[in-house]
Amino acid sequence: MADSKEKKKVKKLNFKPLADYFRDLGTAFSKGSIAVKLSAVFMGLGYFSCGQIIKGILTFLAEAGFIVYLVLLGGPSLSKFGTLGTVKREAVFDPITMQNTVNDYDNSFTILLGSIIALFIIFVFVLFWIANIKNICRTECDKKAGRHVNSFREDLRDLVGGKFYLTLLSLPVLGIVLMNILPILVLIAIAFTNYDQSHLPPSELFTWIGFGNFAKLFSGSVTASFGYAFRKVLGWTFLWAVLATFTTFIGGILLAQLINSSVVKLKKFWRTLFIIAIAVPQFVTLLLVRNFFADAGIVNSICSNIGITSFLQNIGLVSKNITYIPFLTNPNWAKFMIIMINIWVGIPYQMLISTGVLMNIPKDQIEAARIDGASNFQIFKSVTMPYILFIQGPALITDFVKNINNFNVIYLLTQDVYVTTDQALANAHAKEVDLLVTWLFRLTNEYYDYKMASVIGIIVFIICAAFTIISFTKMMSGDREEVYQ
User: What does DSSP say about strands 99-102 and 91-94: parallel, antiparallel, or unpaired?
Assistant: First the structure.
């Protein structure tokens, strides 16, 4: 009971409510001097009143830079954010120069991107403005109370001393903002527009259409091809992610157990053999395998010569209208082969990881189980597997999310090989073997349907984020690490 109260206390201290954040701002205004209040308009004025000239100048320059950016770049984009542009690109023949001149047109994508960047910069500036007011009030209070106030030089010294972690984190945070946050915001915004091949900048404009794209994707109508394709592709994506993750995971563990077994000789030889399989680049392996299992490939030739093709025709697994096994051209055969090939590609890597984990299983637990009369299977079930799951649990979650977005295996094995016969899927530019991520790629790179690709991207992000958060929350709950210490 005491531990529970302590955890609640720590949680309360670590997570400050949003109301307190703004209450501190109100306190700074109410208790601060006239210089603090004027700093709301002329940032840096409070620093001047406290004798911190350099801080005041830098803060003033930051405010001036923000205003200049807003007037020259951010403002013009934000003024057109509601419509995403109204002036189309036109080339007009000028009889004086005898040349075509292009008018001053609007680019919808540039407006959208500029507006999102401007809104983000405004958000960051508001946080900076609030922090500035609070800091000036704190500095003023410290000075009146006779406490030491850091100079600009001392603040710089702190950035390479006691607060060096802030300096180190600045570049990674900037990278996350530029490479992750802003693209995600653009992706979300495009999902609410009609940005596609018919509305492709700079020659055409696109505009806001609200939740129309989401309605199209989740529509239950028989004639709605995108809704039909989404259900089919989503189902296969989940099935693939589960099978691809657990087949390689279990297969890698069993292979590692087999190689580490006392009855197996030449352990180094077998490990080296599987390491060589990992050393070959995956895209090379997948492209070679695609050629091997093609309709006119070497595997089909061998199967036809030794009678396997005719046997499969007799039992109904292959149509008698064809003379080959449609490994990668029939939907059911293709899904089966994709999973099998992924097992072959993925098990060696999982075997190496499992080998390292198996070597670190507490020997006393295994010996205790043997003394109690447990069989090898019982030891594997009750000691080995729980330990492996505890150690590799986070990696297993990562593998599942990675397989949801496993572009290479699906695309490299089926591109230019598999052709769908389902007209509803074809209308949505999807195939039976597509994952959400390969469907998204095809929509953008081949059909320029950015609006639907953005909607699918949001769905993929929500699925991966929700699964990761829930799985890690469940996994980190409890004190299971004490069992293995």
Answer: antiparallel
DSSP-assigned states of every residue in 405-419:
T-HHHHHHHHTTT--
Contact 26, 131 (CB under 8 A): no
Give the separation between CA 172 and CA 286, rounded to whole angstroms. Answer: 34
Phi then psi for 323, rounded to 5 degrees? -110, 20
Q: Report the C-alpha gap between 374 and 378 in whole angstroms.
A: 6
| Helix/strand/coil for 224 | coil
pLDDT at 4 over 50: no
Which pair of structure tokens corresponds to residue 135? 């800091």
Place of tokens 């320029």: 448
Output the pTM of the full model.
Answer: 0.80
**Neighbour count for residue 282 (Cβ, 10 Å):** 14
Give the phi and the psi of residue 228 in degrees, each rounded to 5.
-65, -45
For residues 106 and 7, the model is more confident at: 106
pLDDT, tens only, 197-206 = 999 998 899 9
What span, in angstroms and rounded, lies between the C-alpha atoms of 197 and 447?
7
Q: How confident is the model over 8-27, as pLDDT tens digits?
A: 444 444 445 566 666 777 77
User: Is residue 443 within 8 Å of residue 449, measured between CB atoms?
Assistant: yes
Q: How many whole angstroms separate alpha carbon 403 and alpha carbon 236?
A: 12
